[in-house]
Amino acid sequence: MKKISLAVSLLLAVSSVSVAEETKSHQHHFYGGINLGGTDWGSLGSGVTDVTRVDDPGVSWGLFAGMQTLPWLAFEIGYQDLGKSDLKDVSGSYDAQTINLTAKLSYDFAERFAVYGKVGTQWYDWSANGSGVYEDDTGWTPHLGLGLQYEFHRNWTGALDYTWYNDIGGPDINYFGISAAYHWR
User: Fold this and answer.
1) Which residues is 142 bridged to in the sheet?
2) Disulfide-capable partner of 58 in 83, 136, 155, 160 (CB 3.0 to 4.6 Å)?
C-alpha cells in the first residue's frame, strides 16, 4: 500500500509540475521583438498634394518591448518607422515614424494560437521635404490593431499584424506586417 501511495504521490507531483510549466506561458513576464512590413498612407495633406504626388511607401520596421501582466493583457512600448517615399514631381521625400504606447488584449483559441487586439496612442513625427514642399508635424494620436500570434517555442512567438495609425500629420496610415518576439519566462 505504501508503494502505491508513493507512486500516486510521485505521479501527481510530476503532472502538477508539467501543468505548471504549460501555464507559465501566460504568467507575468517581459518580452521584446522586431517587426517588418509595409504601409499604405491614404490621403496626404493639401500642402503636399497641391505641389506633387508621392510614390508608394517603402518598407516599414519597428522594435517593441512588452510586459505580460495577465494571461489576456500585456502592455507594450515601441518604435515604428512607417517608411520613406519619394515625391514624384519634385525631388524630395515623405517619411513618418512613431513611438507607441499600447495595451494588447489576447485570446488563445487553439493550442499555440492566439488572436489579439491592440489599442493605444503614439507620438508621431512626419515630414515632406522637397522642391516647393516643406511640411512637417509632430503630435499624439490613437492607434488600433489586430493580429494572429503563434507560439513556436516556449520563448519564441511570431505574428501577423495590422495596425491603423490615425491622422499622422493628415493621413491615416495602415501597417501590415509580421513580427517575432522573445519572451523571458
Assistant:
1) 121
2) 83
- Which domain does 138 fall in, by range? 27-184
User: What is the number of structural domains in the chain?
Assistant: 1
Residues forming beta bridges with residue 164, ordered by sequence position: 144, 174
CA atoms within 13 A on the CB side of 95: 12
Q: Shortest CA distance to 147 belongs to which of 123, 164, 135, 132? A: 164
pLDDT tens-digit series, residues 21-73: 444 456 899 999 999 999 987 666 656 666 666 666 779 999 999 999 999 99
CA dihedral 66, 70, 72, 77 (to 10 degrees): -20
Kindly provide the residue ranges of all beta strands, DSSP E only, lying in 41-72, ordered along the sequence: 59-70
Residue count (the chain): 185
- CATH number reported for the structural domain that contains residue 67 in this entry: 2.40.160.20
What is the C-alpha separation between 65 and 31, in angstroms, rounded? 6
Q: CA 71 from chain center: how many Å?
A: 18
